[in-house]
Amino acid sequence: MNEVELTLPIPPSDNRYYGKAKGKRHKYVTLSGRIFKHEVAVIVANMGLRGTFGRAKLAVLVTLHLPAGGDIQNRLKALCDGLEESYLFDNDRQIDDLRIIRGHPVKGGRSVVKLWRI
């Protein structure tokens, strides 16, 4: 398979993806971040896409349909981590071309992600 399109939940923003323990410098992935990554893993597994891209170099087009306004670029880390941890590909360093588009607003939000080998 050379190209895949996924419809996923909206990823949490960096502000909601990472937490920081009081008085500590170390960041951790919050509950909302872990839930998002689990949802992505379930979708990828249910579609039979685990291991689809292995170590191939990738291009990714992301269309974010946010519920209302907001920053689009600060949602990419959670999205890429979720795709990597779902075993769609081996490592997000494989992504050589990454584009993000703001889609029309959707109640509850939605992400449409297209990936292909380059």
Number of helices: 3
Principal-axes shape call: globular
Q: Strand percentage, roughly? A: 25-35%
Question: Could you state the oligomeric state of the chains shown?
Answer: single chain
Q: Round the Cα radius of gyration to an integer and report it.
A: 14 Å
Helix content: 25-40%
Q: Order of strands across the widest beta sheet? A: 1-6-4-5
**Strand tally, please?**
6
Poorly predicted parts: none
H/E element order:
EHEEHEHEE
Q: What is the SS-derived class?
A: alpha+beta
Overall average pLDDT: 94
Distance N to C terminus: 12 Å
Taking the sheet with the most strands, its summary is: 4 strands, mixed
Topology:
Elements: E1 3-8, H1 14-17, E2 18-20, E3 27-29, H2 31-46, E4 58-65, H3 76-85, E5 95-102, E6 110-117
Parallel strand pairs: 4-5
Antiparallel strand pairs: 1-6, 2-3, 4-6
